[in-house]
Design goal:
This protein is of the alpha+beta class. It is built from 13 helices and 20 strands. It binds 8-demethyl-8-dimethylamino-flavin-adenine-dinucleotide and P-hydroxybenzoic acid (PHB). The site of P-hydroxybenzoic acid has 9 residues, from loops.
Length: 384
């Protein structure tokens, strides 16, 4: 078999790239290790920058998002119960869209015309310095696909980055000593906007998926087990970390999903190795505090998509030659913002009282300075 681009991974990065290529008439096959239902069952991101909204529109995948997504003009931050409003529209004239990653993925799956092989086992990348090809097995048969380029969109634990010799890639990493315990519940959100809360017991986030479905998180120790958290324990802990008025208004119920995600900052450099490119979580991880992971994945593939189209259709290497440098510039800014939001809002056991006083000063500075709030808003809604 032969195709122009083999895409490894059918998460948002792989599916969006597949769509951008197919719109330009470039042939691509996506290989995904899991089943489509498994991919759709992963509850992850909830906030789209406007650039991501526009990308999904360009991909022809925006109709349901505009009908069902919620446009947010701001967000709330609270510190030990004191609340502050960050008004995106007033501060930077932009908004974000609250629309779940599951829905983005479903919309991209629905419009895809090209081939996606789900449950592709033992995917292996070959000769990406010369004439690249990819092998995989499905239902006991091994297949080979020859191609011009390989796009590694297979997430943090994928095979693409793992196929590279250690000497070819530099990695930068920070693992945080805590994770997020998340609960999904079919109850209306407690507030029209998201609430990011710092409390001496740890961070908490009130998010949402729709007018009738809410997503809540609390910071937990890195080694915490989800089995130790009954719904009742979760709701009690969440309430304690919010300001009293919000705590009182929360509508609790039986969780429909509950999971713990570790927090990590990670970047691999460069993003190009001959005819192999990395994009999305395969190349970088941000802690979810800044809502940047999915957005970065989409901005990577916007750059990579045009670069591959240019290379295949116009014979120009300019885009692929500069993809890594251009994408990394944006990636590091999002890494910085996500690290900063995480540092402000979480309890770090090792920094003690000094650390908490600094966090409080940072929060007070935001409260008193429009310039500081503007910087937060500018990053949150997404840098150009
Ligand atoms: P994905 O979604 O991990 O998809 C990679 C796909 O590759 C497949 N795969 C393989 N396929 C073939 N062969 C192999 N050997 C393979 N190995 C892996 C996997 O099965 C999978 O289907 O990466 P992608 O596409 O780069 O997308 C990245 C986003 O999923 C991620 O950055 C976000 O979910 C991060 N994130 C958030 N991002 C935001 O922009 N806004 C948010 O509000 C937000 N909240 C979050 C988040 C992530 C979270 N968790 C659980 C990590 C909240 C949480 C709790
Ligand atoms: C979510 O709704 O899952 C969500 C929202 C904002 C974040 C992270 C996660 O910063």
């Amino acid at each position: 078999m032969r195709t122009q681009v083999v895409i490894i991974g059918a998460g948002p990065a792989g599916l969006a790239l597949g769509r951008l290529l197919e719109q330009a008439g470039v042939d691509a096959i996506i290989l995904e290790r899991k089943s489509a239902n498994y991919v759709l069952g992963r509850i992850r991101a909830g906030v789209l920058e406007w650039g991501s909204v526009e990308l999904l529109d360009r991909a022809g995948a925006g109709a349901r998002m505009h009908a069902e997504g919620l446009v947010h003009h701001g967000t709330a931050l609270s510190f030990d119960g004191d609340r502050m409003h960050i008004d995106f529209t007033d501060l930077v004239g932009k908004q974000v869209m609250v629309y779940g990653q599951t829905e983005v993925t479903r919309d991209l799956m629905d419009i895809r015309q090209g081939t996606t092989v789900y449950e592709a086992e033992d995917v292996q990348l070959h000769d990406f310095d010369g004439k690249p090809w990819v092998s995989y097995s499905k239902d006991g048969t091994t297949h080979r696909i020859d191609c011009d380029f390989i796009a590694g969109c297979d997430g943090y634990h994928g095979v693409s980055r793992a196929s590279l010799p250690a000497s070819a890639v530099s990695t930068f990493e920070r693992v945080y000593p805590f994770g997020w315990l998340g609960v999904l519940v079919d109850k209306p959100p407690v507030d029209p906007e998201l609430i990011y809360a710092h409390h001496e017991r740890g961070f908490a986030l009130c998010s949402q998926r729709s007018p009738t479905r809410s997503r809540y998180y609390v910071q937990v120790a890195a080694d915490e087990k989800v089995e130790a958290w009954s719904d009742t324990r979760f709701w009690d802990e969440l309430r304690r970390r919010l300001d009293p008025q919000t705590a009182e208004r929360i509508e609790t119920g039986e969780s429909i999903e509950k999971s713990i995600a570790p927090l990590r900052s990670f970047v691999a450099e460069p993003l190009r190795f001959g005819r192999l490119f990395l994009a999305g979580d395969a190349a970088h991880i941000v802690p979810p505090t800044g809502a940047k992971g999915l957005n970065l994945a989409l901005s990577d593939v916007a750059l990579l998509g045009s670069a591959l189209i240019e290379a295949l259709q116009d014979g120009s290497a300019a885009g692929i030659d500069t993809y890594s440098v251009r994408a990394l510039e944006r990636i590091w800014k999002a890494e910085r913002f996500s690290w900063w939001m995480t540092s402000l809002l979480h309890v770090f056991p090792e920094t003690g009282d000094f650390g908490r006083r600094i966090q409080r000063a940072e929060f007070d500075y935001l409260m008193g300075s429009r310039a500081a709030r503007q910087s937060l808003a500018e990053n949150y809604v997404g840098l150009p």
